[in-house]
Design brief:
Shape: globular
Order of helices and strands: HEEHHHHEEEEEEHEHEEHEH
Distance between the termini: 70 Å
Radius of gyration: 24 Å
Protein name: Transcriptional regulator
InterPro entries: CBASS_pafABC_assoc_protein, HTH_11, WYL_dom
Helix content: 25-40%
Number of helices: 9
């Protein structure tokens, strides 16, 4: 920008126009990053049949509700670029297919912050000074492990550098994000083993619930990594582990199964579940 004496906004606009003209550009993140021209001579041509092309557009359509993502791109703009490479007849055929196929998924509840920076910190294995505000405003030094999207919310697993405790953090509650110069000696594999050990020790209370066939369908639509379906003597059970601090979340989750689940153990979970049902019933006493 200094070389050509133009503003950042002008540079980005020019890059977008070059992409529209068909120049293959890609971005390199980081302090010494920028935009590069893709060496197309190194890439073999790719050929797709109509079904494969339609599947690609359907996948992009399904992702359109993720209006914040870690890749600094809008899926609608990617779709538009791909459409320009199709003939008019192919475009019309794709549009007809997309108009009669739908994918329903929760939209992001709140805008997530710092997703591109967070993804790059994971890849570069950087420590980050994070200001977080879900329960109380706090600044902590963390190392992120992964990034995942669930029920309209972006989450990340991260370890607190100071007290070595793991936590799950919501990206929409991050208010500042500063990459630190310091590095730790933990490889990603060591970090993964640490997270696995944490999950085993943190979620140590075993629970078991009878579940119906329809309940199994509900489970497949929405479940957590610490849960599974087991078949014992031709009876399906939902089993898993939780921490005492998570009991309210677990009760809320199990209530969504309605009549298609019955808690067998532990007794403390069963009583919390019954108490919540009584609270719900009490709201209808006056009817």
């Amino acid at each position: 920008m200094e070389t050509f004496d133009i503003s950042k906004r002008t540079a980005l606009r020019d890059l977008q126009e070059l992409e529209t003209l068909g120049l293959p550009l890609y971005s390199v993140p980081g302090r010494y990053g920028g935009y590069r021209i893709l060496d197309t001579k190194l890439l073999p041509p790719l050929y797709f049949n109509f079904e494969e092309i339609t599947a690609i557009f359907f996948a992009l359509k399904a992702l359109e509700q993720l209006y914040t993502n870690p890749f600094q791109q809008l899926y609608a703009s990617i779709t538009q670029k791909l459409m320009l490479n199709l003939s008019k007849a192919q475009q019309e055929a794709v549009y007809q297919t997309l108009n009669v196929t739908h994918y329903y998924n929760p939209m992001a509840l709140k805008p997530a912050h710092f997703l591109p920076e967070l993804l790059q910190a994971i890849i570069d294995e950087n420590q980050v000074a994070l200001t977080y505000s879900q329960h109380e405003l706090q600044t902590i030094n963390v190392r992120f492990f992964d990034l995942f999207y669930r029920e309209g919310v972006w989450f990340t697993h991260a370890i607190n550098i100071d007290n070595k405790k793991w936590g799950v953090y919501r990206c929409d509650y991050m208010t500042s994000f500063t990459v630190l110069d310091t590095k730790d000696n933990l490889s990603r594999h060591q970090l993964e083993l640490s997270l696995q050990a944490h999950n085993k020790s943190f979620r140590s209370i075993y629970f078991k619930c009878k579940i119906t066939e329809f309940g199994k369908e509900l489970f497949q639509k929405n479940h957590y990594e610490t849960m599974k379906i087991e078949i014992l003597d031709n009876q399906a059970y939902l089993t898993g582990y939780y921490n005492e601090s998570e009991i309210n979340y677990l009760v809320h989750y199990l209530i969504e199964f309605g009549e298609h689940i019955k808690i067998e153990s532990p007794e403390s979970l069963k009583m919390s579940y019954i108490d919540q049902l009584k609270t719900i019933l009490n709201r209808y006493e006056s009817i």
